[in-house]
Design a protein that fits this description.
Elements lengths: L3 H12 L5 H13 L1 H19 L7 H19 L6
Helix pairs in contact: 1-2, 1-3, 2-3
């Protein structure tokens, strides 16, 4: 049975229709029983729709490069064996 935390991981893929039939059915069954996850999925759908409505559809390559660099740096910093805790 799909748990709430598992649904949260695949929620975007569910909304985008990218799950297998079995995964999608598992999400639907969970949503039938879990009001909190129905609310979560509803809010995620609304947010996605809002972002699509305010997007130009054009990708800013320089912005994407900066995001990639910052994510890579954050991952290096987080996983560094010499980092003080």
């Amino acid at each position: 049975m799909l748990m709430c935390r598992d649904l949260a991981v695949i929620a975007s893929d569910y909304i985008d229709g990218e799950l297998s039939g079995r995964q999608s059915l598992s999400v639907k069954m969970h949503l039938m029983m879990c009001r909190d996850c129905r609310t979560f999925i509803g809010n995620l759908r609304a947010t996605t729709d809002l972002m699509k409505g305010h997007s130009s559809g054009k990708l800013n390559e320089a912005f994407l490069q900066r995001v990639d660099e910052r994510v890579a740096e954050a991952l290096r910093t987080k996983t560094s064996p010499n980092k003080d805790k």
